[in-house]
Each structure stands twice: as structure tokens, then as C-alpha cells.
Specification:
Elements (H helix, E strand, L loop, with lengths): L1 H24 L23 E2 L5 E7 L4 E7 L3 E10 L7 E8 L8 E3 L3 E4 L5 E8 L16 E11 L8 E12 L17 E6 L16 E5 L15 H24 L13
Parallel strand pairs: 1-3
Antiparallel strand pairs: 2-10, 3-9, 4-8, 4-10, 5-7, 5-9, 6-8, 11-12
Length: 275
């Protein structure tokens, strides 16, 4: 009966531990449901339009323009970037390309997806996609692994006829991500996410006007305003904790079971005690 009680308590503990993990791994709702999504894109890294994961951003431009957006990605996420370009009614064949850069402006490789596509003559639209590698919480300085922070999307045409240059087009971009969980966890983390400073401001000296004196004016970097809904690296809980706890419980049960099977029923009555 004692072994049965131990097994019941262990299974109850594992179930309670698995509950938060299941809640954490469930997909989160789309951010703001496109209500605050931008309707125009930037023309460089510094002017990239900020979007949240789950938002569907739109922009109008001309063939030959570089269109930029930025979004946040945290450790354990595998971003999936999709873009649709609506082309003019009459055009020759065009080749469009979707690139993703991290906070250090390093071009990130795509695991899979049509990152470059050619639209046939007269095609109404072209769709591109890039599923990135899983964002790691920490990496070696020489590695090119994706790290938590801001990521940039660049959409542009890379091959078209001269007659089509400057024709109006419209683009639609959306970023989703999948939470990979404990299988992507690493031993380490960044001190700060790779979110660039986009401006430097001078604090007021208290009199309502700015002061030129460095002693009464402090400068601070204004960081990008986008970040995950629950904060950076807030998903510290992963299913790795569940598997570690389950392994410990099973090891303890195996020890208890082995001892119960090998200890026997005690000293036989016919054997005198040791003197």
C-alpha cells in the first residue's frame, strides 16, 4: 500500500508540473488583431515600420523601392515571415526577394520557405515566405545564431524589365512564430536583447528648457518601442523542467521499488540474532 501511495503522489506532482508548461506552450492570441498595424513601410533600417507578431502590415510603393519593417522575437521562438506583393495589371516577369536581418543587421538564413520568387508576365501577385531558425537565448560571439531582439524585414524586387521600373505595387507582411519549448533551451542568456537605440534625447533641466551644461542635462538612448507582449525572455518556463522533474521522480520510484523487492520479509525466526 505504501508503494501505491508513493506512485499516486508522484503522478499528482507530475500532473501539477505539466499544467503550467501546457499553458505556457499554447499559442498566444494575435497582437491587437491588426488594429494598430502600420499602413506604410520604411525605406531603411533606421526608418523601418514597427509591427508586432500577429499583425498584418500593408504598404504601397513602386517597383525598385526597398520596403522595411521590424518586429520583436524572443528566445525559444521560431519566426515565420510571410509577404504578398500585388503587382500592376500589365508587367513583364519580375523576381522579388524577402530578406530578414537581426538586431546586428546580420542577414539570417531561412530554414525553409520561398524567399525568392519570380512572378510570370501578367501575374496578379507573388507570395514569399521565410521560416527562420529558432531564436537562441545565448550564442558564441563568432556564431551567426539568431538572438533575442529586433528583426528587420526587407522586401524588394531584384530582377525586372526597365519598362516596369517605378510602377505602383502594394505589399502585405505578417509575422507569426512557434514556441519551440525546452528543446531549444541553452545554458546562458544575453544581458540585454539586441534592440538598437534609434535616437538620443536630452533630459530637461527642470526649468522647462534644455540646458547646454552637461551637469544639468543627461543623455539616454531611446530604444525601439516594440517588445513581446509578456516582456523579453519572460518565457523561462519550458517543458524541460517537466521532463527533468519526471526523470527524478521515476528514478526515485525505481530505487524504492528495487529496495522493496530485494529487502525480503525480514530476518527468519529460526536465525538467532547476531551477538
Amino acid at each position: 500500500m505504501s508503494i501505491t501511495r508513493v506512485l499516486s503522489a508522484a503522478l499528482l506532482a507530475v500532473g501539477l508540473a505539466a499544467g503550467p508548461a501546457a499553458a505556457d506552450s499554447s499559442p498566444s492570441p494575435s497582437a491587437s488583431q491588426d488594429s494598430g498595424a502600420p499602413t506604410q513601410a520604411g525605406t531603411s533600417f533606421r526608418t523601418a515600420a514597427e509591427i508586432d507578431q500577429g499583425q498584418r502590415a500593408t504598404a504601397s510603393g513602386s517597383t525598385g523601392d526597398y520596403l522595411y519593417w521590424s518586429f520583436p522575437a524572443d528566445a525559444g521562438q521560431r519566426p515565420d515571415v510571410k509577404a504578398t506583393v500585388k503587382l500592376p495589371d500589365a508587367h513583364a516577369g519580375q523576381t522579388w526577394q524577402l530578406d530578414v536581418y537581426d538586431g546586428l543587421r546580420r542577414r539570417q538564413a531561412c530554414q525553409y520557405g520561398a524567399q525568392t520568387r519570380t512572378a510570370a508576365q501578367g501575374a496578379a501577385s507573388v507570395e514569399l515566405a521565410c521560416v527562420m531558425r529558432t531564436v537562441r537565448a545565448w550564442s558564441e560571439p563568432w556564431a551567426d545564431d539568431p538572438l533575442p531582439g529586433t528583426y528587420y524585414i526587407r522586401l524588394t524586387v531584384v530582377d525586372l524589365a526597365s519598362a516596369d521600373l517605378g510602377q505602383p505595387v502594394s505589399a502585405e507582411v505578417k509575422v507569426d512564430s512557434k514556441d519551440i519549448g525546452g528543446s531549444a533551451a541553452v545554458d546562458g542568456s544575453l544581458a540585454q536583447p539586441l534592440v538598437p537605440g534609434i535616437a538620443v534625447t536630452s533630459a530637461s533641466d527642470g526649468s522647462g528648457s534644455s540646458s547646454d551644461d552637461s551637469s544639468s542635462s543627461t543623455k539616454s538612448a531611446v530604444l525601439s518601442s516594440i517588445e513581446p507582449d509578456d516582456g523579453w525572455s519572460s518565457g523561462w518556463w519550458s517543458d524541460r523542467w517537466v521532463w527533468t522533474g519526471t526523470g527524478g521522480v521515476l528514478a526515485a520510484l525505481a530505487g524504492i521499488g528495487g529496495y522493496a523487492l530485494t529487502r525480503g520479509s525480514g530476518r527468519p525466526r529460526r536465525v538467532p540474532p547476531d551477538m
